[in-house]
Amino acid sequence: MLNKDAIQSIIFRALESINDERKLEDQILISAETSLFGADAVLDSLSLVSVIVDVESALSDASGREISLTDDRAMSQSVSPFSDVSTLTKYISLLIAESA
Amino acid sequence: MTEVEAYAGKCALITGSRRGVGRLIAEHLLKHGARVIGFARGAATYAHPRYDHFQVDIGDPASVLKGFSDLKKCVDTVHIVVNNAAVLTSQYSMIMPPASAQAMLNTNLLGPFLVSREASKLMRKNKWGRIINIGSMAASLEPIGDSMYAACKAGLATLSNVMAKELAPLNVTCNTLAVSAIKTDMLAQLPQDKIAQVIAGLPIPRFAEPDDILNVVDFLASERSSYITAQTIYLGGVN
Predict the structure, then answer these.
(1) CATH number for the domain that contains residue A20
(2) Within the 133-162 window of chain B, which residues sit less than 8 Å (CB to CB) from chain A?
(3) Which of A2, A15, B183, B230 has a beta carbon 3.0–4.6 Å from A6's, enabling a disulfide?
(4) What is the mean pLDDT of residues B91-99?
């Protein structure tokens, strides 16, 4: 089963892919606190979609099953799973634990 | 580049590829060098070294996901999508079976959405893609009996236009080719007098020929059409 560090690495790789397409001065500072969604978000909407798609794809490859990060449950959380890297990591850990 | 090589190096996904317009387009792209993946509910009706066929019900989200999972075992990406699969029941609304209406909604509108949704995730990596939705003159002519079919095809053009905006930053175009009547199994289901009446009312009063369709497919799929998106092209003078 994917642990927290492995999940965070997957998210970091997705953010690095975004950086690969950005100019040097527009690079995202990647850490557990990197804000993904909301007023302080470092991503525009299409970049966030790209990160979600990359993370879903990598999780499916690693776990061998389809994992959706954008179902009704994700959208109805009191704290958005996409607030920052750490909240997304926790949410994915929860999804994986429940499906194990 | 010769005409034969026009699609060399390109992978095209065509839904409803077993027969009719889907098969016509699939065979055209194969002839001109493409790798073609076909999605259809039934088994393949032809074979080619560069053709792979998967039995997919595009109106079923789980079936589409399974289809793309299988597709990714064959090819790394998809460059061109032709959302062609469609079903038609022509009947007065008051006596249209709800199941038939639902089937049209699933296959003719939800299906292209689901297929485009998954394909665009692959196109995103290439920063190149062409989505061609096969619409219908019914969206404009609104013929009696085609309430749900025409609504789905009108919705398909709108779906196409919204996705065109979403996908433009990824260099993916999304357009609709609204075909007029062409002699296919689907058309054969309709009363011949009704078809003759529709044809007679067209500005160019004849059936569409295969090349009328392939000409526009080639145009929309070409490198040079990167600035053409969110457009609906009607055949036969319909607008």
Answers:
(1) 1.10.1200
(2) none
(3) A2
(4) 95
